[in-house]
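Subject: Sanity check before I submit

Could someone independently write out the structure tokens for this chain? I want to compare against mine line by line before I put it in a report. The sequence has 214 residues.
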Amino acid sequence: MKKEDLPSTLSVFPLSNFIIFPKTTVPLNIFEPRYIDMINDSMKSNKLIGMIQPKNSNNDQINPELHDVGCLGKITSFKETEDGRFLIELKGLIRFKKIKELITKNKYRVVNVNFNDFYQDLENKKENVKFSDLELIFKDLKSLFEKRGFIINWKALERQSLDETINALAMASPFSLEEKQVLLEAENLDIRKNKISQILSTYTFDNFNNTTIQ
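---
Independent answer below. Compare away.
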């Protein structure tokens, strides 16, 4: 996608503890009526929606306060089920900053956004991070995933580009809402890698403490 094609307003899907990163693709099961409307409207126009986390993980709120940074996604696959749900695949394109929320007649939320801080997400430049730098992070992440019962196809990940791999792991990780938001807002891949390492060190520390107490 080109800079000039980016929208200034965006319908958003506030989903707690769910983040999409640029250059990753995720499946979504849409069943809530207002988001069925949102996907319908998006399919008729540019197939773009924004994924953004609420600041509070309490899903009972109708319009929870939103974080400032989310990610623009494009619907790349769409299927309607017999019971009226939508099964879609969403590809992350570029992060955005929320400017203000708009009042509309829609049941779903619409915000003014800008992309000025994140144009690098659209580039395919190679970042100066090597797989050898990541071996320890991968080892610690693998251990954490396995402890939490997560199954990851590590061989498949290694065949992807480095940014796809790091973003996919950040997205799928069993980190908290706040930790994932920090990873999303990290300026570049190298900073994101270091943030993952910092977060992992707190998990390792907690595990050590738990073992000591027992």
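---
OP: Matches mine. For the report I'm noting this point. The CA atoms of residues 46 and 74 lie 8 Å apart.
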